[in-house]
Design brief:
Its main location: membrane. The chain is mostly helical and 257 residues long. Helices cover 69% and strands 4% of the residues. The chain has a two-stranded antiparallel ribbon.
Length: 257
Amino acid sequence: MTATPIPHLAGSGWIVARDPRLRVGAALAFALITVGLDHPGSTAAALGLALGLALAAGLKTRDLARRLLALEGFMLILVLTLPFTTPGASWFELGSLSASTAGRDLALMILLKANAVVLALMALVGTLEPVALGQALGRLGVPDKLTHLLLMTIRQIHLIHAEFVRLRQAMRARAFVPRTDRHTWRAYGWLMGMLLVRSLARAERLMDAMRCRGFRGRLYRLDTPHWQPGDTLAALGLMTLLGALAWLDHGLGLPGV
């Protein structure tokens, strides 16, 4: 059985049992508030809250580290370059280059905010199955066309991945060994071409099958989510924590603080 190319994070905490609509809305609210923070203290508190959400979602440390690895690589480049490209008071000098304190502070804020938002998204949204995410977006008022596009894209990515695996197995069965020569690049070119052609054919067959089943441009949601008392308590708790973050950021910005 071929694994889906868009796996969701396996969670086991109380967040996983919450309503998908609550989790999507909470992730959006957390991201908006965190991006608007202006002080390192409140931003560090947001990162701590995101870590708490990840722990409450039951995410494994290995999964978190693997997902954050790509982000941290980009953040490393940002942290190393921003102090030297942002004007301001000198922090230290490296030969003819001068690093500014303003660039250092900006790099720190971006690093904290990015990690906080990504951790919160992994805890709240990353533990949702793609189909459940699409249905939650539809119930939150996202236009049907965008929801359909998301669900169809997820399905098509899975089909392309499965087709790629079959073609690669066929190449191995014919004793293909990749090398740095013209034959290898030609073979990979044919692989990409056949992948696109077969994916288009699969998409057309999928559309024909949907029309045979009465598809008229709308996917009917068969899920019947029920808002539980635990969802209300979780929503109130998250609203309180997010409000505390905004209050802390405002307090740190007052004169004399």
